[in-house]
Amino acid sequence: MTKFNEVTNATKTVWAGEKDYLVHGATQVPVVHSVSFGYDDIDEWFEVAIGNKEGHIYGRNTNPTVQSFEDKVKILEGAESATSFSTGMAAISNSLATFLKPGDRVVTIKDTYGGTNKIFSEFLPRLNIDVVLCETANHEEMEKEVAKGCDILYLESPTNPTVKITDIKRMATAAKKVGALVFVDNTFATPMNQNPLSLGADLVIHSATKFLGGHADALGGVVCGKEDLVEKIYHYREINGATLDPMAAYLLLRGMKTLDLRNERQCASAMKIANYLKQHEAVEDVFYPGLETHPNHEIAKKQMKNFGGMLSFSLKEGLDGVREFLPRLQYANRAANLGSVETVVGPARTTSHVECTPEERKALGIPEGLVRYSVGIEDVNDLITDLEHALSYVPVKN
Ligand SMILES: *Cc1c(COP(=O)(O)O)cnc(C)c1O
């Protein structure tokens, strides 16, 4: 397989991971809709089945279209290996379940994605796994908890929806001292802006549903890292069955060809929009790691190439202001996803943290009037005009 060492990620998004899967002279990867793969020679069949020879046996295990998708992400993350899942949550839960056993201890942050937070607060404790939730940007607290002994350090940076930043390299160094595995959810940053493996992480996870696919038309998840770790996760998934569908893999693969192009536009627009919102009289607070006022802007600058297409902001009028503002946006889907070519907005209380009670959201520092804004690829001036119009309906408290 071509390693693409000599080209940048922009070129890799277009070319990487595809060549080995082309057939009949086609220039595009086929969608292989086949549950099983047949062999006339029973010795060959056996060799493939036990993994001595390359090939496919059964769709729950492997599929060529799915593998092409895994190869592309693997190359973009600079990983040895990758394996995929039906959703981002399946990637997260299966990866945790592969390595955890009763009595283990996980150190993580309070601001993980809502679903991930539920795994930590609801499902793992039930299996007698101790989970410690630390303040996301409190590195000293996290280092102390890690030093007490831990099996997995689970991070997400930037976080959803308040885009908080954790110093991945610093925390990975702390985790290595106690022999813990470091997981990083890289969904918000994408491989274009951040490569956690190069910062010391053992495993990097994506909800491919978001920026990787980029068109809000396919669900998927992926985990990348060292071959021996990913092999174990693959084995857990092939038995437990949260397999990525070939049609979804094809849509994700197709979407990823424009990942660099989309990301460039989305990062530039997000920066402009964050600056615009910051000076608006109806806006209370703007959260974007690219802003110099972001508490961990310096860390973000150190570990990220660009700051991503996600921002959030709160209105002085709170939820009442959001009720006036949100319905008036013309160029935004009011929906639960993010990272697509269209701009997507929603209050955190109905999107990322809908699973939480108001008290839980408060404890997480998520105002009920917080709006998550996933910047699409539209013209940024049109988006600002749209925001300006919708915000003009929000009464301004003085
Ligand atoms: C959406 C999301 C997930 C979950 O992904 P699904 O594909 O919806 O299961 C995990 N982490 C982050 C940061 C997300 O935004």
Automatic annotation (TrEMBL):
It is an enzyme of class 4 (lyase). Its cofactor is pyridoxal 5'-phosphate. InterPro entries: Cys/Met-Metab_PyrdxlP-dep_enz, PyrdxlP-dep_Trfase, PyrdxlP-dep_Trfase_major, PyrdxlP-dep_Trfase_small. GO terms for cellular component: cytoplasm. The keyword Heme does not apply. It comes from the Bacteria. GO terms for molecular function: homocysteine desulfhydrase activity; methionine gamma-lyase activity; pyridoxal phosphate binding. GO terms for biological process: transsulfuration. The modification N6-(pyridoxal phosphate)lysine is found at K210. Pfam families: Cys_Met_Meta_PP. Keywords: Pyridoxal phosphate. It catalyses: L-homocysteine + H2O = 2-oxobutanoate + hydrogen sulfide + NH4(+) + H(+); L-methionine + H2O = methanethiol + 2-oxobutanoate + NH4(+). Its EC number is 4.4.1.2. Belongs to the trans-sulfuration enzymes family. PANTHER family: CYSTATHIONINE GAMMA-LYASE, TRANS-SULFURATION ENZYME FAMILY MEMBER. This is homocysteine desulfhydrase. It comes from Salinibacillus xinjiangensis. The lineage of its organism: Bacteria, Bacillati, Bacillota, Bacilli, Bacillales.
